[in-house]
Design a protein that fits this description.
The complex is a heterodimer of chains A (about 140) and B (about 300). Chain A is of the alpha+beta class and about 140 residues long. Chain A has a domain at about 15-105: Ribulose bisphosphate carboxylase, small subunit (Ribulose 1,5 Bisphosphate Carboxylase/Oxygenase). Chain A is about 25% helix and about 30% strand. Chain A contains three helices and six strands. In chain A, the strands form two sheets. A four-stranded antiparallel beta sheet of chain A has the order 2-1-3-4, with helices on one face. A two-stranded antiparallel sheet of chain A has the order 5-6. In chain A, a hairpin with a 5-residue loop joins strand 5 (about 110-115) and strand 6. In chain A, helix 1 packs across helix 2. With about 300 residues, chain B is α/β, with parallel strands linked by helices. In chain B, strands 2-3-4-1-5 form a five-stranded parallel beta sheet, with helices on both faces. Classes of the chains: A alpha+beta (about 140), B alpha/beta (about 300).
Chain lengths: ~140, ~300
């Protein structure tokens, strides 16, 4: 199941040039870039692991593409996303965030139904990648 | 050369190309803002011309290797190395040799770590910041400390050398420092010497040039010398040059800062009412009060 989330979730996956252009856009706006990875793409999982530190004081997207390539080589089977953080007063939030790598095989989620009183049903989704980790 | 380009006979209007590349504007600005330094300016102009021609050759499908652009700037303190490096970054940017044209200034502390495994990430971080711009390494010879064989400087040097070779498209390195010490540094690190295409030496300023620099600074800061104080400042410089720790333009700036301080003090002490021009005028007394006239700056190390 192809997971979508973040800024360009409705678009097909970006090519490297497109990723670089988006990163350059962030840098031009003075948004430091962070690279994050995870094996658990659950929509409520906001705690992805950061690859290195957020990259401050960088002017050229090529530098970030190099780090991204390192990250991809280290975690070829995980989700990787790029986020640009706008620190300006009044905003102070992630301004743009998109997935740049997904594993070849995306296990998707398991939908858990819970019967509660009055025939109500509560739903929970669990990432297969977490409940049945590879290896 | 096996294939001769098809557009061989095409006319190229060099004047027009030169003008439209806004190098001329940058060079003019350099000329205006920096007094003297004739050999440096000639050299920069030559480099700019070479880069422009290389660009043109490329546009007309003649094979050109990307020219090596790493440079070394040698000269005493205060001769304008950093300023020229900043202009150089702009020139390289306007010719499209670096993508962003910013200047990252680094020294030993920024590159070399304190313990095992600390150097590589630090150097890498700086290199990453420099991508798309110019990396200016001030007093580069401090990277290499032959007296301590366990010094981590060597590690930084090796990383730098690899990056200078492999990421030639990504950034330009400018090494700067005193001439003699740079020469020893290059002797003990032949790898650096061969990777640097342009060695530019910044000569010391002559007395006249120093006076002109002072005039320029005074004008920029909206002050003015009168005839007497100008002569006094010339005397001051003449004596100051002989004394230790003289740092060319930087010393001039520091001297002017102290003169401004004394001028302000004089005005306040005198009190009463003044005219506006008095706020700008530097009096001979402000200059003459300097310690230099009373036998030396030995007591002020940072002058």
């Amino acid at each position: 199941m192809r997971i979508t989330q973040g800024t360009f979730s409705y678009l097909p996956d970006f090519t490297d040039e497109q990723i670089q252009a988006q990163i350059q856009y962030c840098l031009n706006n003075n948004w430091p870039i962070a690279i994050e990875y995870t094996d658990d793409p659950h929509p409520r999982n906001v705690y992805w692991d950061m690859y290195g530190l957020p990259m401050f004081d960088i002017k050229d997207a090529v530098a970030i593409m190099q780090t991204l390539a390192e990250c991809k080589a280290t975690f070829p089977d995980q989700y990787i996303r790029i986020s640009g953080y706008d620190r300006s007063l009044g905003r102070a939030t992630t301004a743009l965030q998109f997935i740049v790598q997904r594993p070849a095989d995306e296990p998707g989620f398991y939908l858990d139904r819970q019967e509660v009183s009055d025939r109500q049903v509560r739903y929970t989704i669990r990432s297969h990648s977490v409940t049945r980790p590879r290896g | 050369m096996t294939d001769i380009p098809a557009t061989q006979g095409e006319q190229i209007d060099l004047d027009q190309v030169w003008q439209s590349s806004d190098i001329q504007a940058l060079l003019d600005k350099l000329n205006e803002e920096l007094i003297g330094l004739v050999p440096v300016k000639t050299r920069i102009r030559e480099i700019a011309a070479m880069l422009l021609v290389a660009r043109l050759r490329e546009q007309h499908q003649m094979s050109t290797d990307r020219p090596t652009l790493h440079m070394s700037f040698t000269g005493r303190p205060g001769t304008g190395k950093t300023t020229v490096a900043m202009r150089m970054a702009k020139i390289l940017h306007s010719l499209g040799y670096v993508r962003k044209g910013h200047l990252v200034v680094a020294s030993r502390d920024d590159l070399v770590g304190q313990y095992v495994g600390h150097t590589a990430p630090k150097t890498k971080e700086i290199l990453k910041k420099a991508i798309g711009g110019v990396l200016f390494i001030d007093e580069a010879y401090y990277l290499y400390r032959p007296e301590n064989e366990r010094d981590y400087g060597q590690e930084a040097i090796e990383m730098l050398l690899t990056a200078m070779e492999n990421q030639r498209d990504d950034f330009v390195v400018i090494l700067a420092g005193y001439k003699e010490r740079m020469d020893t540094f290059f002797q003990s690190n032949p790898g650096f010497h061969s990777r640097i295409a342009h060695h530019v030496h910044f000569p010391d300023y002559s007395l006249d040039e120093l006076v002109q620099i002072a005039e320029l600074m005074v004008r920029q800061q909206m002050y003015s010398f009168d005839d007497e104080s100008r002569a006094a400042f010339r005397d001051y410089l003449e004596m100051r040059v002989q004394q230790p720790h003289f740092a060319n333009a930087r010393s001039v700036r520091n001297a002017l800062d102290r003169i401004k301080l004394r001028q302000a003090n004089r005005l306040i002490r005198a009190g009463g009412s003044i005219v506006t021009s008095d706020l700008a005028r530097i009096d001979v007394e402000d200059v003459r009060a300097s310690r230099v006239f009373r036998g030396g700056t030995a007591a002020e190390p940072s002058a």
